[in-house]
Every structure is written in C-alpha cells, then in structure tokens.
Design brief:
Rossmann fold, 26% strand, 11 helices, Quinone Oxidoreductase, Chain A, domain 1, alpha/beta
Length: 327
C-alpha cells in the first residue's frame, strides 16, 4: 500500500516520507479499512514534531488518528456483515504507530463508526477529534437547553461543531471570532452574536450580547490566554470546558477570584474520554449526519504526496479541517 511515515522527529518537509509499505492484516477484534480521506489535526503535527518522545521507540510512525473509508476485511470475532460498510475512524494512531495516512489501516472495530450515506468520506474524516471533542465540551456537564454558552474561537475545527451542538440543543450561543469570514461562519452555525477576541475587554462585550446576563458555560480554545476575559463574563458556578492552551501552556490561575466564583474547570481530550462519552458522541454524530444537521468546514484536501504541506497548513492555524486524500 502507499503510505506516509516518519522515522525521526522534525519539520514536516524534512521527516515525512511517502512510498510503499506492506499491507496490514486485521487482527482479532479489528477491521481493515480502505482509507479514502485522512484528517490532519494539531495533535498529529505535534507528535511528528516530537511532543511524544517515546513514539518512535518501536519503529516508524504512520501519522493521523482520524479518517474515513470502507471496511474491506475483518479479523476474528468481528461479523463479516461489516465488510463493505462505510465508516469514519478515530484514535487510529493513539497509543500505537499506525494511523490513517495510508491506503489501508487495521484498527479496533469499535473505533470504526458507521458513516451514513448522505455524508461524504471527507466529512467523515472531520468527525473524530473535532466533532467528538466539541460534543464532550458541550454535553459533559449536563443539558445546555436554555443556557447561555460562550464558544471561543467559534470558527475553528472544534468551535464550529461546538456552536452547532449547543445551539441545536437549545442553548443561546455567543461566539468569538477575529475576522468577517469567521464571524459569518459562526452565525451560520447557530451563534446568536459574535464578538472580536482581538479587542481588549471582549469579555464585557459578551455581556452586551446576552443583555447583561453572564454565561453558564464556556467552550474554550485558549484557556490561559482567555481566562481573564472569561472571568468577566461567566456566571457564578459556571463551567469552563477547555481543550487547548497553546499560547500559555502552563497558565497561572487567579485562584482567589475563581474560588469565590465556585467555578468548574473541565479539561477535555478525546483519547481520555470515558467510553460511554465516546459512544454517546458517536450516536449523536451518526444521527446528525443522517439528518444532514451539521455544517462542515473543509479548508484543504491535498494528495498524499503533499502531506507535508497539509501539516504546515495546520501549523499555520488554518481554521477548517485539513484532509489528505487517499482515493
């Protein structure tokens, strides 16, 4: 099969190789997926750059955890009725070396979820980290119906889906964005109002959008950098669900202020989500895709030979999903 891999850490153009590798075989409990599209996420480019130092201990790594395609074979213990099934996959390269940047991937059958016919393989490749993370941040702390929800970075991979999950569940959603195109995307996804997070004091601007009422939940893309503004607009006993803090990897907390606000902080990463939360997300994703209720932002789809460029786009902060096409 054709695949991409790296044998050392470093810049994408220096370490990523493309060529032929042996076809994998599905083991017990596994399915073999013919990959049509592979999703590129920030965690993928970080691992290629060296964020997981022990990753290469056992050999080269085929990157990317997300993807979509069709099951072409099954291992022992998996029903042959799954052969031919359209699926989206997640966690392909979590805790192991073999991801979706290849024409074939063998992985645990539970990590290959049904992809309803209306959805394309490109859409399926966006579901793993972006849509599942968004689902967890919105619903991990109970229903959001009639609640005020702030989504920072609402035009990003996770934020765009978070707006949709929250608004479709009956929340009043305010988002932040930094340009006109992103603002329009947030509104189209279901945000009632959008504030510019480049402006000083944007947290107080959120209160203008809510009629002076503080928000119950915050879905946050930059925990450390945004915390001061978030504290200006979150309700006592509110919840901050965050999935990244790139600008300030080790944030300093104004603990006394937060203490007297009785705040809840939830830190979310797909890989560590409880299994029931993963299955709940999968069920809701399948339903939403079948009913065509989700909007998707695919910013780029590049051939396997240009995988290095796909990593560079993610590193540059491209908002929508970046895909590598295998077929």
């Amino acid at each position: 099969m054709r695949a991409a891999w790296f044998e050392r850490f470093g810049p994408a153009r220096e370490v990523l190789r493309v060529g032929e590798l042996p076809d994998p075989e599905p083991g017990p409990g596994e399915v073999l997926v013919e990959v049509h599209a592979s999703g590129v996420n920030p965690s993928d480019v970080k691992k290629r750059a060296g964020s997981a130092p022990n990753l290469l201990a056992d050999g080269p790594v085929i990157p990317h955890s997300d993807g979509a395609g069709r099951i072409v074979a099954v291992g022992a213990g998996v029903s042959e009725s799954r052969i031919g099934e359209r699926v989206w996959v997640y966690q392909a390269q979590y805790g192991r070396r073999f991801g979706t940047a290849a024409e074939l991937v063998a992985l645990d059958s539970a990590r290959a979820a049904r992809l309803p016919e209306p959805a394309s393989f490109d859409v399926g490749a966006c579901m793993g980290i972006p849509a599942m993370t968004a689902h967890r941040t919105v619903f991990a702390d109970g229903p959001v119906e009639r609640q005020r929800v702030l989504v920072t970075g609402g035009a990003g991979r996770v934020g765009h889906y978070a707006i949709q999950w929250a608004s479709q569940a009956g929340a009043f959603v305010v988002a932040t964005a930094s340009n006109t195109a992103d603002e329009q995307a947030c509104r189209a996804a279901g945000a009632v109002d959008v504030v510019d997070h480049r402006e000083a004091g944007w947290g107080r601007r959120v209160l203008d959008a809510t009629g002076g009422e503080k928000v119950d939940r915050v879905i946050d893309v930059e925990f450390g950098a945004n915390l001061g503004e978030v504290l200006d607009c979150i309700e006592t006993s509110g919840t901050i669900a965050t999935y990244a803090s790139m600008q300030q990897p080790e944030p300093r907390l104004p603990f006394p202020r937060m203490l007297y606000m009785d705040l809840n902080i939830r830190i979310v990463i797909v890989y560590a989500m409880p299994e029931p939360a993963k299955q709940a997300a999968i069920a809701d994703i399948e339903s939403a895709l079948r009913e065509n209720r989700l909007q998707h932002r695919v910013s780029a789809r590049l051939p396997l030979d240009e995988i290095a460029r796909s990593h560079e786009l993610v590193e540059r902060g491209v908002r929508g999903c970046v895909l590598v096409g295998l077929r």
